[in-house]
Amino acid sequence: MVEWITAEGLVSYEDAVAFMEERVARISAGEADECIWLLEHPSLYTAGTSAKRQDLTDPDRFPVYDSKRGGQYTYHGPGQRVVYVMLDVAKRGKDVRQFVQDLESWVISALDKFNIKGEIREGRVGVWVERPDRPKTVTGQTAEDKIAAIGIRLRKWVSFHGISINVEPDLEHFTGIVPCGISDFGVTSLVDLGLPVGMDDVDVALRQSFEEIFNTDT
Question: In the annotation, is 180 catalytic?
Fold first, then answer.
C-alpha cells in the first residue's frame, strides 16, 4: 500500500526533510507503508549534489538549502506542486534508471490529462514542453521550457525527495538560479501555458497517473 498525504499550507524545507528521513527509515525497517507526500514550500532554493555555486546568481533573494538529492539548483515556492516520493525501489526491481524513467513517465502522463505534451531530452533533466509560440533558439530549434524537475536520493533502496511541477508559481523567482544548470531554455507552468488549473486538479491527475505507471494498488 502507498499512503498519500496532502499537506495544508506551506511546509518548511527543514520539516520536510525531517519527515522524509524518519519515514524512509521506517519504510526500510518494514514499519511503515510507502508514501507520496504532496505539498508546497515557501520560496527557497535547493542545491543538489551536482550544484555549481556560479549557478546561484542571486544568493540573497531566498533561503538556500544544501540537499542530498541528485541534480543541481532548483527553486521551490507557492504555486508549485512538490511531490516527495518515498517508495521501496528494491521491491520494484532495484533498477534506479528504470525508476527515474517511471517518475518521468508519471509526470508526462499527468500532464497529458491536461493535453500538455511533456517530453524528455537527452542530457537535460526534467520534463520539457515545446513552445512554438516563441522565437526559435539561436541554433534554429523550437523553443522549449521546463515544466517539471526531478531529483531523488536512495537510502537502503528507499527513495526520497522527488518531483516538482510548476502549476502557478512566480516564474520570475527562477531567475535567481540557473535552473538545473541549464541556461539555454526557460521555465513555464500550467497556468503560463494557458490552463486554468489548480493544485487539486493536478493532484487528481497525479494519483490517476501513478496507478497507470506503477501499476500499484494505492
Answer: yes
